[in-house]
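We store sequence with structure; for instance:
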Amino acid sequence: MKWKIGNTTLDVLPPVKRYMNAIERHLRVDRKTRVRIMTELASDFQSRRENGQSDEAIMQELGSPEEVAAEFNAALDDETVQPVSRWRWAFVALAAVILLARFILPELFLLQSHTSSIGVIGGADGPTAIFVSTETSSGLWEVLPWLLGCAAGFLAAGWCRRGSGKRYAVPFVLCLIGIVLQLFMVFVLQQMPGLLAGAYLLSQLTTSGVWLCLVVAIWTVWEWRHCKRSGKKN
């Protein structure tokens, strides 16, 4: 069985190939660094073979795949691997608070108000149902930029730090989508009467998730530049 990594090709048995693949899976580095490490490891493996060691003896001497990968991860930690930030969970908490405040609490309040009004106002089911349906659909569009900003922040503080710098394109695009959606909503507001549109637009500028998207987008670019300076270009 052929095992090719970089410019090195080895004739290996299935156990050796599984061993090497396991090491590669446990490496917490970008693709370019991973290829370099595995190429050096393949060269070292071949040199040990030429010195008369068996595959089993080489694997036993190197250690388990987890141990081998851990040594490389520890050696390269300051250069290529950024620690995952605990602040990523703050974005999850913020998204939960937004959903709770925008949908769940108003629904409970309306349900309580509707229950207390039974027998007093006839035909309340129709208007109440229409109001709730309208609020839910419009509310989803209003909170979507917030949710996109939270998702982008969560990825930038976690997933993006465990791979190549190109990963930062994902949260950046999410932020752009949130900003575009907000601009589209503002464009739609132009069809409303002047004073009403102006008042609603002012409230959107002060409470909209577009600001979160802007902040996270700037932070994502800064993180990407930091990765680029540290050598994580792929």
Remarks:
- Strands lie at 2-5, 8-11.
- The chain has two domains: 2-80, 88-230.
- The mean pLDDT is 75.
- The chain is about 75% helix and 5% strand.
